[in-house]
Amino acid sequence: MTDQPTDSQPAAPNAAVGSVAVPGAGKFGLAHDAWGRLVMIDAHGERHVDVEPARAFPISDPEHWISICDAEGRELACVEDLADLAPSVRQVLVDDLARREFVPVIERVYHVSTDNDPSEWDVQTDRGRTRSTAKTTSAGWGRTARW
Question: Most CB within 10 Å of its CB: which of 44, 53, 57, 66?
C-alpha cells in the first residue's frame, strides 16, 4: 500500500453534483479525497484532482463567477451563480472557499514587540484575541506571520 495519493483513487462515493456556466460543460461533482484534496468529476466522468476554486469578485460579488482550476491553473469550469448549484455541491464549494479565504480582521492591537525578530503581536481579531509572531525580511514584512 502506498502513502502517496494517486489520481486513480476514487473520490468520495457521495460526491455532490451540480451545473456550471461554461457552455457544453454539463454537470460536475465535487468531493474531497482521502488526503483532503478537492476533486472535480466532470460530465465525462474524468477526475481532476487538487482543483482550486477562486472567486472572480470576492468582495463585490462573492456569490457569482467562481472559477474552478486544475492543479496547473487552467480553468476547468466557471460557476456563474452559486444559487444554480445543487445544495450539496454548493456546500462543498462554499466550505472549500471559506478555508482558502480565511483572513481574520484585526480590530485592535494591544501590543507589538519591535525589539526582537520575529516580532510578537497581541491583537483582537473578529475571531477573538490572539498572539502571533511576524518575521521581517530585508524587503519589509514577509509572508511568515502565523495567526
Answer: 66
Report the chain's C-alpha Rg in angstroms.
19
Tell me: do 91 and 115 sit in the same domain: no
First to last CA, the chain: 36
The residue among 112, 23, 103 whose CA lies nearest residue 55 is: 103
Amino acid (1-letter code) at residue 72: E
Total domain count, the chain: 2
Q: What is the pLDDT of residues 55-76, one digit of tens each?
A: 999 889 999 999 999 989 999 9
Residues 64 and 127 in one domain: no
Residue 62: count of CB within 10 angstroms of its CB? 15
